[in-house]
Design a protein that fits this description.
The protein is of the alpha/beta class. 45% of the residues lie in helices and 25% in strands. A hairpin with a 2-residue loop joins strand 4 and strand 5.
Length: 177
C-alpha cells in the first residue's frame, strides 16, 4: 500500500453534513479513512472561534460564555491531535455579518511542501478551488482520491478520475452518535 496523506477541509464537509441533518465525528472519520489508505499523516484545517464569530450566532453571549466556547475548542483540537491529526487552525473572520475561515492556501501549501513524503493525496473537500492543486499533484505523479459531499464541484469530481467518494456513502462509519 502506498503512503498517503489526508488533507481535511473541515468546514466544507461539516456544512454539507449539517445541511443533511447530521454531524461528522472526525475521530471516526480518520479511523474509517485509515481502513482504506495507509495514512501516514492527516491534516485537519478548522477555524477557531473569536468573540465576533461567536456573537454572530449568539449576540447576547457573555464574556464567560465566549471564554468557555474558546476553551472547548482548544480541548477539541487536543482531542483531534490525540487521534492522530495535525490540526491547522486560525481565527474565524467576520465579514459583512458572516463568519469566514478559508484554508485553501494552507491546504495547497502543506500538500506541496510535503510532496516528497507521500504517494497518495486524499483530499477531503468538495471545493472546486482545489482543481488546480489536484492537477498539479497529479502532474507530480501523485495518486489522487477525493472525499466530498455528493454535490461537490463537477470539475473536481472529474479530476478525481473515478477516485471520488461521497461522505453520504460513509455516513454510517463517520456519523457522530
Amino acid at each position: 500500500m502506498s503512503k498517503a496523506f489526508l488533507f481535511v477541509d473541515e468546514a466544507n464537509l461539516y456544512i454539507a453534513a449539517r445541511n443533511k441533518g447530521w454531524k461528522i465525528d472526525w475521530v471516526r472519520f480518520l479511523s474509517h479513512v485509515n481502513t482504506q489508505f495507509d495514512i501516514a499523516e492527516a491534516f485537519l484545517y478548522e477555524g477557531e472561534p473569536t468573540e465576533s464569530s461567536i456573537r454572530i450566532g449568539r449576540p447576547t453571549a457573555t464574556d464567560i460564555e465566549i471564554a468557555g466556547e474558546k476553551k472547548r475548542k482548544t480541548k477539541y483540537f487536543e482531542k483531534l491531535r490525540n487521534a492522530g491529526y495535525t490540526v491547522r487552525h486560525k481565527p474565524v473572520s467576520t465579514i459583512n455579518g458572516r463568519n469566514k475561515c478559508n484554508f485553501d492556501v494552507e491546504i495547497a501549501v502543506d500538500s506541496i511542501d510535503r510532496l516528497n513524503d507521500y504517494d497518495t493525496c486524499v483530499l477531503a473537500s468538495g471545493d472546486g478551488d482545489f482543481i488546480r492543486l489536484v492537477k498539479y499533484l497529479r502532474g507530480k505523479g501523485k495518486e489522487i482520491h477525493i472525499i466530498g459531499p455528493k454535490k461537490s464541484s463537477k470539475e473536481l469530481k472529474k479530476e478525481a478520475r473515478g477516485n471520488f467518494k461521497s461522505i453520504r456513502g460513509m455516513r454510517s462509519h463517520i456519523k457522530k452518535s
